[in-house]
Structures are given as structure tokens and as C-alpha cells.
Amino acid sequence: MYWSKLFIPTLRENPAEAEVASHQLLLRAGYIRQLSAGIYSYLFLAQRSLLKITRIVRQEMDAIGGQEMLLPALHPAEVWQESGRWEVMGANMFRLKDRWQHQLCLGMTHEEVMTAIARGELRSYKQLPQIWYQIQTKFRDEPRPKSGLLRMRQFLMKDSYSFDMDASGLDEAYEKHRRAYCRIFDRCGLKYLVVEAHSGAMGGSQSQEFMAPTEAGEDHVAVCASCGYAANLEKAESEPVAPLAADPPGDLAPHKFHTPGRKTIAEVSAFTGLPETSQIKSLVMVAGGEPVLVLVRGDHSLSETKFAGVAGAPDVRPAHPEEIRERFGADAGSLGPVGIRGMRILADLALAGRRNMIAGANQDDYHLRHVTPGEDFTPEWHDLRQAAEGDRCRNCGKPLELKKTVEIGHIFKLGYKYSESMGLRVLNASGAEVTPIMGSYGIGIERILSAAVESYHDLDGMSLPPAIAPFEVVVTPVNNSDAAQRKAAMEIYRECLAQRLDALLDDRDERPGVKFKDADLIGIPYRITVGKKLAQGKVEVFNRRTRETAAVPTGEAPAFVRNTVS
Amino acid sequence: MYWSKLFIPTLRENPAEAEVASHQLLLRAGYIRQLSAGIYSYLFLAQRSLLKITRIVRQEMDAIGGQEMLLPALHPAEVWQESGRWEVMGANMFRLKDRWQHQLCLGMTHEEVMTAIARGELRSYKQLPQIWYQIQTKFRDEPRPKSGLLRMRQFLMKDSYSFDMDASGLDEAYEKHRRAYCRIFDRCGLKYLVVEAHSGAMGGSQSQEFMAPTEAGEDHVAVCASCGYAANLEKAESEPVAPLAADPPGDLAPHKFHTPGRKTIAEVSAFTGLPETSQIKSLVMVAGGEPVLVLVRGDHSLSETKFAGVAGAPDVRPAHPEEIRERFGADAGSLGPVGIRGMRILADLALAGRRNMIAGANQDDYHLRHVTPGEDFTPEWHDLRQAAEGDRCRNCGKPLELKKTVEIGHIFKLGYKYSESMGLRVLNASGAEVTPIMGSYGIGIERILSAAVESYHDLDGMSLPPAIAPFEVVVTPVNNSDAAQRKAAMEIYRECLAQRLDALLDDRDERPGVKFKDADLIGIPYRITVGKKLAQGKVEVFNRRTRETAAVPTGEAPAFVRNTVS
Predict the structure, then answer these.
(1) pLDDT in tens, B171-193
(2) Is the ipTM of this complex over 0.95?
(3) What CATH number is attached to the domain comprising A485?
(4) Best interface-test mutation with B: which of A82, A96, A157 has the largest number of B CBs within 10 A?
(5) Are A154 and B72 in contact (CB < 8 Å)?
(6) Which of B399, B427, B453 finishes a domain?
């Protein structure tokens, strides 16, 4: 294609509204424009890159026997009511009424619709296994849309769904997806981690996330460089650092003392002279409408995800101040487990075996000394804490590293959640009705592009992997009014096309500096520059990522790039 | 691919809810399933066919220099308010509010968003011309969703938009699209007509529709087999049949007479003994909130589209009975133009020069004789009637034929409607601000599939054109438990793939009748049947559309199909 004919509205400056690199560069390089909060138009360059990404996704999904479908974006409320998620999705779901006042929503995901199709059509074990997928638009009314294409209210997803007769079938479908996802991200040229994940509102058991490390990410991942353990921070298991001091001496009999105005763990620590590790942090959560007292060590944080998994309720949240006051007779800064009855008490394992600790007295401005878990109260013991920097790996004892990441893929073993709630049943080989087991698997299409920009950019712009760049190579005559350069550039461009390179000819009447800057900005991996060396039968091949330039005989430049790309 | 692994849920019977052939067959052949009124899931076969259609559309759009984009489906109300269409679209537009109570809608089309992008980015004549397109989901809350994929509430469209400096640029973009559309529909194997059309809610001047003739269609087209004139019925111009009798004798002085209980044209004709062609039919329309009296010959019908064009108001409708009573003092069956003041009167050209006609007296149960247009009232003269069977072509005088069709494409010269209302301005070569001129162009992706099914089906199922069939050829061993047949079928299947045929192997353990029936139903254009003749080194190549069978040497069958397809 000829650059002079294309619509590539590059900007000189980074747009003020954009904070993260991918957002800045996708705007500056003319890939995208915002229409509304979290809603973007994909211009020519973005769409060209997204089409390459979807082609790779499609090829790898087809390779594992996935059958492509295309399901509606508009869903009747009924299918979501059947699965119970009409309520669960809350304000994240776009809802609307049609002209007959029927309640509809915009699909956030498609477990319900896929299961409804399966329920209507699958009758026998002979029809299983199945893997169905689509590449399609999803809608989520994000509370905080931001970071360009990283957190949007409308986005593209490849979502697939597996249906199997039993758990080993599901294991196979899951493993096929895991491998396909690795191939997809490898082919797209991304760096990524595969981490243990929680399954959130999806239900189900095992799940893994594919995470691209980037400072723009808002997901935290704990990684062990030594043994390879990697998990979402919310789910990561780890050995906490030991308490900073031995258990305080004491008589094991809780004993109230005055702590005027001391509400936080830090304040009580300063006041008592005992480290934070000697305190019990008491938090009140609400799960399924019921308050639950949750205890972690003073220096630890609760993982709400682990709590939700233990609580077993679909909706969990911190209690409101009024709820706490009403139930405990004290404010959040003075709560503790001693004397609490008629309420579930969950304690993190790091508190097990500890003695003579400090906890709130359930009376404002008072705490208790000499509180001993298991003696003064009897909690349910669970892993509830969130891993932290400095923790050690459970597998190998080496220190864990925390990384900021963005999720680019997610694979779930859903189990029977949807097949059961929506009544999907097939006959097995002995003629008995059984419930198939399901998996669900997603890839964020735009996230691949954003993650690539986050990983591969410099001050001049982006340097995309050739497989997903809008063009593989740009041919740039330094001076477009020089007939020899123009002619040579055109010949090289044609030869690039003949070599099946996705090539662009920068035929604009611009200064060379402008042309180089623009090509650097939009991230074309290779540039063949036709300049003064033409007289000696040479052109320059510039590698955008390494910024290295090689002088190559004019006729060989396309093959040179072809070999480098492949 | 192996049929045994695929999800192709064929049905034995035509589903009761489906009336038109494409709806019945797409359901029966397992292409689609309904999720809700006018909302369908596209299963494996439909998606495979739709992907082939989009590939053809994309190639031809790229070939005319179209640049692909992807715009959002969710639009803020503001862009539609700017163009004035927020109101015009009425109940056809899906509207919703987000979590911040901002008003949004689902895109019915994208003139507004495209113009907003152009307004933000185009600055100079040097950036023009541009052709931007996308292949994307549209949403329309159809009052009567029906006929499967023919009238849906969510559907795929290729829509493109051209921006030019002047009318001759627009002519060129329009002509490029017209040719591209012909190539697209030709490549998809469709029969179609290109007809003059009205532009409806789109605004603008010239427009043409691409119509596929089918009994399932709800658009009527007038076609002259002799000179090739073709137009949407609402827009078609024609010579009406002459009045059945000469003008009645009379004194040219309107004269009231009693017509008790006679309200319709037919009743008054029977009562007076004069033909319908001697009557003036008086209709009351409301345009822009004002009543307008519209007159056509007694045997003619009003084209509301022509009326809307003449009225020049965005909203036109028939008047309600109460409005008529209030304004005329009589009901609809007794209205006429004589004595009407303070109201626009429009008369169809077929009434010009007529004398002594019959019209209502604006008094219940009374009519007037001897009414002469131009004497007894002074109307504005326009072409307002809808063409009818039996009319003659304006170009060549030969009889027009009326055909039922479905619209598969539409091209519009929008003119300045959107660029002006939304303030798109660029600098011309002399540095002056000018408003670019726009065109908009659409293709219904699913309509192509539906129209193909409507055109090419028989009692056994569909027979799709090879370019858009989900597979080009199916290889069917008659008896899958016969090792020799199985082996030969597999070899033929592999050779088909090597010949770049999109091939399916029917490896199911089914009776041959079932396999043949299924392949006939889903419309695979060619079947290579591996049966008893294998012993003589032959297989059968079956042509689905002609139902002809050719015995071909086993090794030559793939090449035979390859040559036939190409």
C-alpha cells in the first residue's frame, strides 16, 4: 500500500489524557481514537493488527479441533436468570429493554448462551467431546475504564467452551487450550507468565491466567524465579516472614487495657511497643448476607479472593461501619474475636500456634493482651492471607517476586456449574442421563496488542513483533522527488510483495525525518531506506527494535527482510 | 475435517415456526438457532459460510482502496443528537443507560461515528479522498423480526463511508462501490438486480439498491425486461394504464349528490356506474406535524416514499381518524379537495387534464360530481403514485414487471447531510474552508447467505454456490466399515486438501441414505461417493445443484472437482 493514500493520523505529542505507554502510543500513532469512556474506534492500523491477531487465534483454535461459531451480543434476561448470574453481575452488566419492554442485556461472556445451545442439541455421549469458540465483542460496564485498550467497556474476546463426559475429558480440553494459548502468545511475540488463578464470578475449580508483565498492569502476580511457581497474588500461597519477635510473655488470660485513640495496627504497635506481628488483625466481611469475622496477623493483608473461596457465597464484601457498630458495639479499630458468639470466625494459618497476642476488645479505645488463638476463641483455620514481597516460595523456599501484569488469557475448569444449573443432560453409553462437565477459556484480543506495545516500545514509539505489526516492512525513499530513488523504492516494494512480505511504500512528499519518525512511531519492524547509497547499489535495512542498520545490495533487501522475519 | 467430530445438528422436519425457505433450511441444516426474536446464534456451518462471505467482501473493498476499521457498537447519545437522528430513529433504536446514567444507544449504522472521526482528524484536501469501511454488528429493534436471517434485530453489515472534496469525487467513490458490489455478489454466486432506490432516513440524493429476487422478499421492485430499467417500487416511475373510460360528460360545475354508506372507491364506483379511474382518491397525510391533502386517481396507490420526498419533512405519516374529522368535518370515505383552504394540496400527475371527476364532498355520505382539477382547486403537481402491475416503462413503453426481492446491498450519495450537521470542514488548495461530500454504502452479510439459500434450494435442502458453501466437497464412503472404501475415501480427502479444496470427510457410522440426505441438506456443492465401483477403480462425483453424477477414476476425482469449482 501507499502511505500517501492511507489514513494514519499520527500526533506529535503524547495525548494528555493517556497515562500508560500503550494508551499514549496507540493514540499518538493513529491506531485508535476514543469515542466515549472505555469505548474506542479502531482505525486502519489497529484493525490491521487485530486482524492478524485474530487470524493466529483462529488457526490455533482450529488446530485443537475448535469449531467457530458466532453468538449474539444481545441476550434475553432469562438465560442469565437461569444460571443465577443476572443478579451477580450487578452494575457491570449493560441492561436494556426492547420495544416490547422485554429485559435484555449485552453479553459480558457466553457461558449461558453456549450452555443453552448445548442443552438444546446435545443428546448423547456420541456427540462429545465438543470445543466451541467465537471471536466476538463483549460488553462490561467497567466502573473505572482506563488505560486505553487495557480496560474497556466494549472489547473483543476469543471465548471457547468445552463439553466433556467426565473430568479426564475436561483435563484434556483444558490442556489443549493451555498449549494452544502458549502457541498463540508465542506466535504473537509476547512475553508472558502462566499463573495459578482464582475463578471469580465464573465458578469452577482449576484455572490459570496468562499474564503479560508490564508496569501498566493492575494484576499482581507472585513468581518464584527458582522453581517456576507463579500465581495470581490473590491466590498465591507462600511462607510468610517469621514474626519479628517471639510471642510476648504472658499468662494466656486475656486482659483488657486502655488504648485511647489507637485504632490502627501501627498505632497500637507504637503504643504497646510490641511489633505488628504480635497483633491479631480483625476484619468483618459479609458473605451471603451474613457477617463473618476474619483474622490475619497484624502485618498481613486479607486476600478477599481466598476468603470468598472459603466463604462459599457468590457475593462477599467488607461490612459497612454501621453494620460493624451494630454487631460489635465498637468501631473497626477495636474489634477482636474474644467473646464473639453466633458468628463464623475464620483465622489465617499464620496465627496458628501463636500465644499472648493483642486483639481489639470490642469496646472503643480498648484492646486485649494475652489472647491465644484456639484457647480464647475457636476459629476455622484457612489460608486467607495475601502473599507479600519477601515471602518465601512454598515449593522451594526461595524468595517470591511480585510483578505487575495484565491478563491476556484465562482458562477455567468450570465443572458442572452451568451444565447443572441450566439442565444440560446427555445419555451415556449405558443409556443413563449424565451431566457433561464444562470448561471455558478466554483471550483478550486487544490486550494482545496493548501488551505487545507495553513490552516493546521506546521513546520513539512502538516496535511491534512482525506477526502482529500492521505492516512487516516499510520502503522509504529518502527523497521522493529523486526519480532514481523513487523508481528503486517502487521496485523494492514490488519485490517485497512478491516475497509475500506485508509491505508499505512511504511515497509521501515529506522530509526524511518526518518519514523516519512516523515509521518508528507506528512500529513497523523493518525499514528499507533508499537513499544516497543507491548510487553504489546499496540500500539500508533498519531494524526497528535493535535500531541496527545494515547496508544491503539493493536487489537483495526484500529477501534479507524476508529471512529475518521468518 | 471429519464429520464425526463436528457439531452439525440437522433436523428431520422443517421447524414449524419457519415460513420462508432460507429460515427453514438454515434451521434444519443446523446452521443457526434462535436465541430470542430476531436474534440468532450462528453455529459452525453458518459461521464458516459467513467467514467466506466476509473474506470476499474484504478483498473487494481493499481492492477499491477501502481502509478497514472497527468502530464501537455502543454510542453516546450525543453524536446522534448532533446529526438529528436520535429522535428520527424512534423505537427502532436500542437505547440504554450506563452505570453513570449516561444515555447510550446501540449502533444501527455509523454515519455519525465515522463523521465524528473525520471531523477530528481530516484537516486538508491533501488527506482526501478516503474510503473507510468495517464489517461489524448492527442493532435495530425491528417491529416485526421474522424470516430467520432476513429481518433481524442484530446482524452483520459491511458499511463504508467515502469522503471527497467535490461531487465528481463522490461520483467516483460511488461508482467504485457499485462495481465492487457487483463483483462481490458475482463472486458469491448470487442473482441480483441493481435498482434505483429512495434514501429514506439516510438523507442524500442518488442511491441504488442491490436486490436478490425471491418470494421471501418484502421489497417490491419494478423491472423492465426490455430496456433494463429497474427501481424500487416505492420510487419507480411508470406510465399508468389509461383511464377505463373517457372523462364523464358534465358541466364542469361541482355538484353534490347523496351516497349513503358508500365510503370506498369501489362502493362509489358501483353506486355511480362510473369506473374507479373517474374518481379522485383523497388521502390525508401529516408531514412535519402539518396535515397535507394528497390526491391520486381512484385506482392508484400513493407512494409514501415519493410523498415524503415532496413533503420535505423527516417524519411523515397518515393522519389519524380524529385529526381528519376535526379538520374536514367528515370521515375518510367522504373527503375531497373542493373548498379546502389553508392546507397544502398535492396531486398526482395522472390527474392532470382530467375533467368532471368524482370526489368526496367533505360531508359524510355525500360526494361531488363534475370536479375538475386545476379549475375547482389548485394543487401542486407531482409524481406521487406507486407503480403497479400493468404499467408501462417510461423509457421504452414496454410493460413493467413487479418482483419480490430482498435487499442485499445499498449505495447512497449522502451529500453534505452529515458533514454539514456535524461540522466536518477541511482546507482546500487555496486555503479556504470547505465541507467534504460523503457517500455511504452497505452490504448485509447474512442476507447474502439467506439470499443464496432462497435462490438455490430444492426439496432436499440447499445447494450453495461453492464460494460461500461451508465446504466445497464432501467425501463419502458408502460403507464406513468397509476398509477399502474407508482407505480410498481418506486418500481422496487428503488429495482434495492438497488441491486446496475445502473438503469434509463423512466418516460417520451412518447408513448411506442418512449421509447423502445430510450432505444434500447442508448444501455441499460436490460429493465424491466411494462405493461399489471402487473395485473398478471408479468413484462417483455428484453435483448437488444439477443432481448429475459422473463416474470418475478414483485418483482423478479431486482434480475433477477442483476444475469444476474454479
Answers:
(1) 999 999 999 999 999 999 999 99
(2) no
(3) 3.40.50.800
(4) A96
(5) yes
(6) B453
